[in-house]
Amino acid sequence: MLTKGLGIIVFICLVWGSLSSLAFVQHDRQTAQLLSNNFSDASTRVYVSPNQSDGCSKNDDDLSDSSRRKVMQTGVFSLAMAGMPSRSEAAWKKSRSDGYNFQRTEKEWKSMLTPRQYEILRNGGTERQYSSVLEGEERNGIYSCAGCQSPLFASEAKFHSGTGWPSFATALDGVEIEPLNVVQANLGGAELRCQNCGGHLGDVFRDGFLFVGTPAAESGKRFCIDGSALVFKPSGDGEEVIGDEIPSRVQYYYN
């Protein structure tokens, strides 16, 4: 009876997490659409990161402050999620430097990285949706860590999730995944880091089944990555693309 009871609880949590992911993905897509619609409005600016000041102002009436690390606590999920910790509260406590092969001092990191890269890789920040040129990258190649150049994702695993962040169905061995039990992983997702330098990359969610017709539907996972944490190296002789570059269509709103 005890085993059966635990099985039922786990099943409920899995369904609960899936429904929450569905609502969260829909929220991200709606926010991205609002962002896209406002590109033609010169009075609306785009933030690089909630934690990074870039001199821009935000129109709170039009843009929602979305975060991958928080499951929405509104509508049908508000009561159910009231007692659950947010991703920020349940963040991985492991040091981003101790125990990793690639070591640099904080001063060296700041000199090597752009302010946005540093905020994401070393402080665990999150870039604004559609603020990385790599979100729309479709060529064959390898996505590597912007901090230490370790290979992290293959282009074959990339797909368009509609959330505004580069998304992948699978990761290479260079990606470290926060160790969580099945319930935690399904409810809030797990943090991703570069296994070589400890840099924060994004989060992985077990909602791949929602993206029918993409590689994620087969893997069951969505690796939601901050483009600024990556460098894309195309196959052949093409020049590498720094993920911190802002797409030309939104460049105006950062000036």
Short description:
The chain has seven helices and ten strands.
Structural summary, described in words:
The chain has 255 residues and is of the alpha+beta class. The protein has a domain at 106-242: Beta Complex (Metal Binding Protein, Guanine Nucleotide Exchange Factor, Chain A). The protein has 7 helices and 10 strands. The chain has helices at residues 2-37, 78-81, 106-112, 115-121, 182-188, 215-219, 248-251; strands at residues 141-145, 151-154, 158-159, 167-168, 175-177, 190-194, 200-205, 222-225, 230-234, 241-242. The strands form 2 sheets. The chain has a 6-stranded antiparallel sheet. A 4-stranded antiparallel sheet has the order 2-1-9-10, with no helix packed on it. A hairpin with a 5-residue loop joins strand 6 and strand 7 (200-205). It is globular and about 45 Å long. The protein starts with a helix and ends with a helix.
- Count of discrete alpha- or pi-helical segments spanning 4 or more residues: 7
* Portion in beta strands: 5-15%
Give the neighbour order of strands across the main sheet. Answer: 3-4-8-7-6-5
Reported CATH architecture of the domain at 106-242: Beta Complex
Q: Report the CATH superfamily of the domain at 106-242.
A: Peptide methionine sulfoxide reductase
Model regions low in confidence, pLDDT < 50 over at least 5 residues = 30-66, 69-90
CATH topology of the domain at 106-242: Metal Binding Protein, Guanine Nucleotide Exchange Factor, Chain A
Secondary structure class reads alpha+beta
How far apart, in Å, are the first and last alpha carbons?
63 Å
How are helices and strands ordered from N to C?
HHHHEEEEEHEEHEEEH
Shape: globular
- The number of E-state strands comes to 10
EC number: 1.8.4.12
GO molecular function: metal ion binding; peptide-methionine (R)-S-oxide reductase activity
Catalytic activity: L-methionyl-[protein] + [thioredoxin]-disulfide + H2O = L-methionyl-(R)-S-oxide-[protein] + [thioredoxin]-dithiol
Family: Belongs to the MsrB Met sulfoxide reductase family.
